[in-house]
């Protein structure tokens, strides 16, 4: 699977203004192409393809000075990206293309000869040539890979990044025959069958208090005011800090597991479905009203699931330990004793405590579940091993260690 290597960019104020214009041009062209595609019906015939839209772009650039001031390369690439997004949608591999919003979808892609113009300017710095912007510096936080394209993005915190799509080499198996089970949770991000309890870092208590104060200030700010914009930027910085910490924890944890164990077993969870909001319950007696559906409690659980990066952790494990990740059914793994195999709901006394009603075994509930996952146990009364090997296999040309 392709991964993205991101590098932090540090443009000058003049360069930043030009990059913002490029983002606006790419977003404008994308939304125009999406509007043409969304207006299709049987009576109007086929919608314009990339060739027709490129000719329309040339006419629009001749008419509007704002569009002509930008880079034609950036704008044409936005049309190519949209055309590819439509193809992926019809192929069933991606979702339907959506609208790009200002402040949320800020970025553009550079492909071709200009994409290869990434020059090192020292041990820790490099620079990229952006059309109609010039050389923009970025920090070398990791080795610079070779790529035929790169994307420049701006997040909500105002940070600029240069992203390169690369195909990383999988981590070879250590060859020690060790098997580990990983139990994902909310209070404990990941419990290993070895007894280790891993916690995904988030915002500290002081940062959470600051976030709460900023959110209160945001609620009192007038829409469109400069104060509201400053508060939104401060909130975005805190969220970006938490996201960076989660990503760093996922990368380090997945790399460590792939290097230490030959087989990694995880629960077969559908995270996207688990994190959905509950459906409204219509009151039959009063059709205009709804019954309580536990939305507040479910929202808290969803935040806990997403804050612990359940899905991303397994995705990175599948990328790094290709063919060595096995998914075990999650049925009763937290209620089954890892010593005698007795399964009962009363075995788990609390979130952290496990006490078997049959043999008296006591231990951490998450570690007990991880041991069951490592052994392939997901049973009620049967002792079969319902294990499903991940579909992400190691490439045929790669050699296994």
Question: Which characteristics define this entry?
Answer:
6-stranded mixed β-sheet, 38% helix, 4-stranded antiparallel β-sheet, 18% strand, 401 residues, disordered C terminus, 10 helices, 2 domains, alpha+beta, globular
Total individual domains: 2
Q: Give the fraction of residues assigned to helices.
A: 25-40%
Name the strands of the widest sheet in spatial order.
10-9-8-11-14-17
Helix-strand pattern: EHHHHEEEEEEEEEHHEHEEHHEEEHE
- Tell me the total number of β-strands: 17
First CA to last CA: what distance?
Answer: 20 Å
Rg value: 26 Å
Average pLDDT level: 87
- Portion of residues in beta strands equals 15-25%
Shape, principal axes of CA atoms? globular
Q: Report low-confidence residues grouped into runs of 5 or more.
A: 378-386, 394-401
Biggest sheet character: 6 strands, mixed
Q: Structural class given helices, strands, pairing? A: alpha+beta
Distinct helical segment count: 10
